Amino acid sequence: MGLKNYLIFAALVASLLLQGCSSTSWVVVDDQALDINDYELISSQYYLESTNGITPNQPIIHFDLKSINTYEYAERVKTERYIQRYRPRLGYVLLGAAGAGLSYYAAFSDQFLDRPSDIQRYALTGAGTLLTGLSFLNMKPVGEPTRTGESRLLRQTGTTTEVDTTSARPYNTDNPGIRISYNNRILVENKEWDFNRGRISINLAEEVDAGIFDENPRQNIVVEASYDSLTHRKEVAVPSVFEQFVVVNVQITALRNEPESNPGNILTDLAEGSQLKLVSKEGDWYKVLYGISETWVSVNDVRTIWRPSEFASDLSVVAIPNVPFGSVDVERNIPVLGRSSLNSGAFILSNNQYEGEFSERIYGQRDAKLMEEYFIQGFGVRSTRVVKAMNATSDMMVDRAYSRLASTINDSRHNLNVYINGYAEIRDGQVYLLGSELSDDGELQYIDLQKLFRAFNNLDLNSIKVFADLDILNENGSTQPLDNLASIITDRNFASAVFFSSRPGQRSGIYSSTSGEQNRHSIFTYYLAEAIKERNMTMNAIYNHLERNVPFTSRSLYERPQNPLFFGNSELELLN
Q: In Å, what is the CA distance from 251 to each residue of 268, 295, 575?
């Protein structure tokens, strides 16, 4: 055999060794396999279920009709088809090739047989071919059998039961019903509803009146669904359905960029009725959204309400721009009525920021500044002789301010001008100004105005004029306590006058309206300044101006009375 033929033969053998074959077989994998196509429904048990989450943006509660089904399935023998690959064994192939080579050699040469006949040649050639074929038939498996994914279920071997829970459709013509309650109060009583493919869907924001909830609801909304003999009850927290908003319930409140009372952090003023979305509560402040900005309002100036989330897109906000002092007419062009004098003094006691449940007197500080400007520019009081007690907490703080006043005007007889504003309360026939801070025990502190007025009598005075813008908190009562308070001064000094902004049972209002003028002062102080600016030079003229304007403005803005009071010498000149 030539080299070329030998190489061809070797290549043929190598290619045959690399070749393989495969076979398939069915193998039993389970003799209790479940036949899902051969079953019988034994029983069904229906129930209602609610599992969905509820948010203010999606305040819908779902009750789904479910069925617990029990099935009987046939068990069968399960077989799966596998493929096994095989490859010739090298040793056997080489032996077969060697044997075939000898047979072929013997058939075509004279080395083993002397001139073999044709029959012998055919026999040896056939034997060589057979040996070669048999060597390739002796295969060995290659790798693990491979699943084809085909399976068969054969004979039945038994039965088994399975339980499955599925969504169900209504099984009769009855309509479902709903019942909604809160804090043992029925809100919706056995109202017929409709199924939507086996589901009861209830929009709680539409079915429940959000106005029934207080600031911190301690109970949950209870929703009950019923169908035929089935019932299901679910409790839903109020914040899961509604969002909280605040509504300004005072005439004016300040919107601030920090949770503290400071004239420098006021962004704007909000009128009564303004609505803002509540973010959180921190101490005496609510964090609210003004547009997309987080801002702050006093807890005492607003009330909280619960509303659906879409309420946020239709909020009513009445903002009053925060303009600087000097923008209001009575703050400009103050007339010079008297010359600068060393014989004139002024005392200002102004409380406008309060701890606890009382609202900030929003323009109280501005009122005090207005009267200070009139005392200095109009009356001729030198700034060094103006003594102020701002946001006094107690009698002790007022006593210190009085001591400064006494040391300032002890060199000669003086004309004293006094301005007082803040919340006041009548207790046991006595008039007290409320301190701006609570005591260490969390109680209100009171400033005794009787004590202060008696202290004024101890000064060496030519005249004294007191302008008291008191927002008296008592709901009713006589004017006698105010008369008694004024008489402490008027009985001792003929050249004296005492004005009160309102009577007991009346509130001292702010001169500001959502659709009208924004004068940024109390009604009383505004018209007091206007009377002085218009050069009403006697107490009687000033009182007449107040009587004409204060009650009318109060009724126009708030539909409530506010009648100023005057005690003392009506002929007393504004400037002595």
A: 14, 19, 35
Residue 143 has pLDDT above 60, yes or no: yes
CA distance linking residue 89 with residue 69, whole number of Å: 58
The maximal CA–CA distance of the chain, rounded, in angstroms, is: 172
Residue 323: per-residue pLDDT? 80
Region of 42 (left: φ > 0; alpha: ψ -120 to 50; beta: rest) is: alpha
d(CA 330, CA 543): 17
Q: How many CB atoms lie within 10 A of CB 298?
A: 23
Q: What's the pLDDT score for residue 149? A: 85
User: Helix (H) and strand (E) counts for the chain?
Assistant: 10, 26
> Hey, which residues does 425 pair with through a beta bridge?
432
Region 72-95: mean pLDDT is: 81
Q: Which of 118-122, 438-442, 456-460 has the weakest average pLDDT?
A: 118-122
Instruction: Name the amino acid, one letter, at 74.
Output: A
Q: Which residue has the higher pLDDT, 14 or 459?
A: 459
DSSP three-state, residue 562: coil
The two structure tokens encoding residue 156: 């039945």
- Report whether 374 contacts 465 (CB < 8 A): no
Please tell me what DSSP assigns to residue 534. Answer: T
End-to-end CA separation in angstroms for the chain: 152
Angle between helices 90-108 and 118-137 (to 10 degrees): 170
| CB contact set of 468 (below 8 Å; sequence gap of 6+) | 418, 419, 420, 421, 498, 499, 500, 501
350-398 per-position pLDDT tens digit:
999 888 788 888 889 999 999 999 999 999 999 999 999 999 999 999 9
Count of CB atoms situated within 10 Å of the CB of 276: 24
